[in-house]
Write a structure and sequence with these properties.
This protein is an alpha+beta fold and about 150 residues long. It contains three helices and six strands. It has a six-stranded antiparallel sheet. The longest helix is centred in the N-terminal third of the chain and has 13 residues, at about 1-15. The radius of gyration is 16 Å and the shape is globular.
Length: about 150
Amino acid sequence: MKRRVLVLLATAVCAIPSACGGSDDNSGGGYRKSRDADSAQVRLAIEAQDGRGAVKRAQLVCDGGEVTARGLAPDNNLCAAARNLAPFLSEKPAADRVCTQIYGGPETARISGQIEGRRIERRFSRSDGCRVADWERAQPLIPLQPQRKSGPR
């Protein structure tokens, strides 16, 4: 019981991107190449779908201090964010997670590749509370900002 409470608490805290090293800024995109002295080898391909037919693709390569980001928000910390997310991205979510049944939207995403030799293959959706929290945790690497729902109509 205590473990599940801790998991739920950690999930709730990480639903706030800035609390887990994420960023709320997902403006922009395009191609960017810069130097990042602290970058280790990262090679990721990302595909996100908005659930209404639009598909966005992105790529992040960090190798020997060179950073190439296509389709991602301008952020000097993308390589560090990817390295920090490597354990999360390389493991499947626990099958026994207790999740709220709150639908977050039709968006889906897939991140694949490798980070520092670790194989990455993770799919995301926003179909329940756990999956929404996972999406928000990985948001710096997802080239799609989900539609925010307005209040009751």
